[in-house]
Amino acid sequence: MKMIIGGAYQGKIRCACEYFGFRESEMVNGSICDFEEVFAARCIKSYHKLISRLLAEGVDPVAFTEKLCEANKDVVIIMDEIGCGIVPVEKAERLRREATGRCGCIIAEKSDTVIRVICGIPSFIKGAPPQV
After folding, report:
1. How far apart are CA 55 and CA 102, in angstroms?
2. Shortest CA distance to 72 belongs to which of 41, 113, 29, 112?
3. End-to-end distance of the chain based on CA atoms, in angstroms?
4. Any bridge partners for residue 113, and if so which?
5. Distances (CA, A) of 23 to 11, 17, 19, 46, 103
6. How far apart are alpha carbons 109 and 3 in whole angstroms?
């Protein structure tokens, strides 16, 4: 499993394409995909949005993420960092951020490679760049 994380519009998708050979059209989109689709996906983008959708449907995103990590050990997961900045006033938004953070920790722990992308520059915080 591999994880790519960073702020919005920082180059995470391009990083996945360059390092792991994906085309964006091949990626499952967490914003709109069927929940079960991720268990067979090679790459999932916008996983943070999938977490929001799970919460809205009453599905425990932490349990879902643990199940995903066991069932699809070769997936590349791309998600935005959303925990920085001002703490939201709305309780639901705080819960969403907490769930996203917990899921990110699970994914990072299970991943052999974790890449943080800032301003289009990937930093390997776990693992090493693939040999070309």
Report:
1. 13
2. 41
3. 19
4. 2
5. 14, 6, 11, 15, 25
6. 10
Six token digits for residue 88: 């939201």
- Which regions of 22-80 does DSSP assign to beta strands (E)? 28-29, 43-45, 76-80
Residues ≥6 apart with Cβ < 8 Å to 99? 51, 55, 61, 62
Rounded Cα gap, residues 49 and 33, in angstroms: 10
What is the token pair recorded at 42? Answer: 């090679």
User: What whole-number distance in Å separates Cα of residue 109 and Cα of residue 86?
Assistant: 26
Contacting residues for 45 by C-beta, under 8 A, at least 6 apart: 12, 13, 16, 24, 27, 28, 29, 30, 78
Using the structure block, give the residue that is written with the tokens 């991720």: 38
Residues pairing with 118 in the sheet: 121
Q: Are 43 and 4 in contact (CB under 8 A)?
A: no
User: 15-74 pLDDT, tens per residue?
Assistant: 999 999 999 999 999 999 999 999 999 999 999 999 999 999 999 999 999 999 999 999
